[in-house]
Q: What sequence folds into this?
């Protein structure tokens, strides 16, 4: 059983991780790198609009130097950086895949069968639990976005993901009529409590860029999770039939 | 009675690899998504932002 789960999760995780990385390089990384230029001060939000910026000395020398250094580092090693990103995507999606296929195996104990096609639904549910639901409280951050304490955010993130997974499972598999309602309540609870946030706004990047980043991370995540679920479902159903 | 005990035993035997696989997955995600040590953070930085893990 363990080997079946491992094999399906590995195939699906590697494929989905590589596809996620390709989609990120195409759609997300350019926005992320531009966001970093605002983070380091190499670019300034109103630079093209307001001359005041220059008079006030926005993008001070220190920041500009730092930006240059960062750019040099980036120019030296973009391949290493993006190679790491691809590798981390593969490992991350293998991690997601292991949990997803463990879910298939658990469902199969109760007589549910998962195929490539129904695997897509599982994958989309994973996307809802791991990316969409937490984003409603903690939006995906463009580099340079100030945010509340990272550990508090991680607690809220984990709580939300777990609550959403359990809530979705209640809705999908709950036999008693009150279970889906309990599922909805569970999914809503972390948002009623609220995610940790700073008072006020202090982002340095243009809102257009931050909005584009959020939209694209969600779109890419949705596609990658659908691929993960589909491939995991395919290998799982083959392993079950064997 | 025997059947019931057997079924329970089978279910328990089936749960162990499932929990093991899920725990392995969570372990991988801890390093790519959560560990704050500089080496993990820097390596995983762009992926964390792209998947919207709380990064720093």
A:
């Amino acid at each position: 059983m363990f080997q079946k789960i491992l094999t399906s999760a590995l195939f699906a995780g590697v494929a989905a991780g590589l596809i996620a990385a390709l989609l990120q390089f195409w759609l997300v990384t350019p926005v992320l790198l531009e966001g970093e230029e605002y983070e380091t001060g190499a670019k300034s939000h109103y630079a093209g609009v307001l001359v005041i910026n220059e008079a006030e000395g926005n993008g001070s020398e220190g920041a500009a130097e730092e930006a240059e250094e960062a750019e040099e580092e980036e120019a030296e090693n973009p391949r290493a950086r993006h190679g790491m990103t691809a590798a981390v995507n593969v490992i991350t999606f293998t991690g997601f895949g292991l949990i997803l296929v463990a879910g298939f195996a658990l469902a199969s104990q109760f007589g549910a069968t998962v195929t490539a096609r129904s695997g897509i639904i599982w994958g989309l549910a994973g996307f809802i639990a791991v990316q969409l639901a937490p984003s409603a409280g903690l939006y995906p951050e463009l580099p340079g976005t100030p945010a509340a304490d990272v550990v508090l955010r991680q607690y809220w993130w984990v709580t939300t993901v777990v609550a959403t997974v359990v809530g979705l499972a209640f809705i999908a598999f709950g036999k008693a009529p009150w279970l889906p309602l309990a599922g909805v309540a569970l999914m809503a609870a972390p948002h009623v409590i609220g995610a940790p946030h700073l008072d006020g706004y202090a982002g340095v990047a243009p809102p257009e860029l931050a909005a584009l980043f959020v939209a694209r991370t969600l779109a890419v995540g949705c596609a990658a999770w659908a691929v993960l679920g589909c491939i995991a479902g395919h290998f799982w159903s083959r392993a079950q039939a064997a | 009675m025997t059947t019931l005990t057997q079924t329970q035993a089978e279910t328990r035997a089936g749960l162990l690899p499932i929990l093991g696989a899920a725990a392995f997955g969570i372990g991988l995600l801890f390093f790519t998504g959560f560990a704050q040590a500089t080496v993990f953070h820097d390596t995983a930085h762009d992926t964390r932002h792209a998947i919207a893990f709380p990064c720093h």
